[in-house]
Amino acid sequence: MDHVIPKEKGGTNSYSNAQVLSRKEKREKSNNLPQRLNQLARNHYQLKQKRRK
């Protein structure tokens, strides 16, 4: 189990703030907020696209 919004950033222990992640996903998420993760994912996707060209 993981917190969607990390407790240290104001998240709660409620079920609405919980999600199931694999070890790899949890390691990648770290204590980032969902908005930051979307930004990181977009950057990663763009890098992969550039490498293919």
Please summarize what this structure is.
This protein has 53 residues and is mainly α. It has helices at residues 23-29, 34-52; strands spanning 2-3, 18-19. It has a two-stranded antiparallel sheet.
What features would you highlight for this structure?
53 residues; mainly alpha; 2 strands; 49% helix; elongated
Protein architecture, described:
The protein is mostly helical. The chain has one domain. 49% of the residues lie in helices and 8% in strands. The protein contains 2 helices and 2 strands. The termini are far apart.
- SSE arrangement, N to C: EEHH
- General shape: elongated
| Distance between the amino and carboxyl termini | 38 Å
User: How much helix is in the residues?
Assistant: 40-55%
Uncertain regions: pLDDT < 50 for 5+ in a row?
none
Please, what is the average pLDDT? 80
Radius of gyration: 13 Å
What's the structural blueprint in terms of helices and strands?
Blueprint: E1 2-3, E2 18-19, H1 23-29, H2 34-52
Antiparallel strand pairs: 1-2
